[in-house]
């Protein structure tokens, strides 16, 4: 899938990419969310440690409410397996949406950054937990 990507690096950091979350992409988003959930559980089980995730939202410019709920459910489902989640590249509009998503999901281990480097630095800091 080119609109939604998933990769795991050698340090077991999961790299995700999100494009626009519009109604015509909901089926693709649901499949991606299922794959993300399985990937997080797989990395958790293999490593024995909570997972770090970085999400590139540079190409995310718009979303609809159903897509928003799919992401909130994904965040809730993975909370117990996740050490930290960082996003980067979001516009002010997307940053405001992320704040609302955090409130819906109840997650507190999630931060937004301007650059990939800042996000990775935060993820790697204190990663021995």
What does this structure look like?
With 129 residues, this protein is of the alpha/beta class. It has one domain: STAS domain (Transcription Regulator spoIIAA), CATH 3.30.750. The protein has 4 helices and 5 strands, in the order ββαβαβαβα. The protein is globular, with a radius of gyration of 14 Å. The model has no long low-confidence stretch (mean pLDDT 90).
Characteristics:
129 residues; alpha/beta; Transcription Regulator spoIIAA; five-stranded mixed beta sheet; 5 strands; 46% helix
What order do the helices and strands come in, and which of them pair?
Elements: E1 4-8, E2 13-18, H1 26-47, E3 51-56, H2 65-78, E4 82-88, H3 92-105, E5 110-113, H4 116-124
Parallel strand pairs: 2-3, 3-4, 4-5
Antiparallel strand pairs: 1-2
What is the CATH architecture annotation? 2-Layer Sandwich
- DSSP strand content: 15-25%
Mean pLDDT score? 90
Structural class: alpha/beta
Low-confidence stretches: none
What is the overall number of helices?
A: 4
Shape: globular
Q: Termini, distance in Å?
A: 32 Å
Main beta-sheet strand count, sense and barrel state: 5 strands, mixed
CATH class, please? Alpha Beta
Give the total of domains.
1
CATH superfamily, by name, is STAS domain
> Roughly how many Å is the radius of gyration?
14 Å
């Amino acid at each position: 899938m080119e609109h939604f990507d998933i990769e795991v690096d050698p340090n077991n950091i999961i790299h995700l990419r999100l494009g626009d979350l519009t109604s015509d992409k909901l089926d693709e988003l649901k499949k991606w969310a299922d794959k993300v959930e399985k990937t997080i559980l797989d990395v958790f089980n293999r490593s024995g440690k909570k997972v770090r995730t970085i999400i590139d939202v540079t190409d995310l410019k718009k979303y609809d409410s159903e897509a928003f709920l799919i992401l909130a459910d994904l965040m809730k489902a993975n909370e117990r397996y996740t050490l930290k989640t960082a996003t980067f590249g979001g516009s002010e509009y997307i940053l405001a949406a992320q704040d609302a998503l955090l409130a819906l999901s109840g997650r507190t281990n999630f931060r937004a950054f301007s650059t990939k480097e800042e996000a990775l630095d935060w993820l790697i800091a204190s990663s021995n937990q």
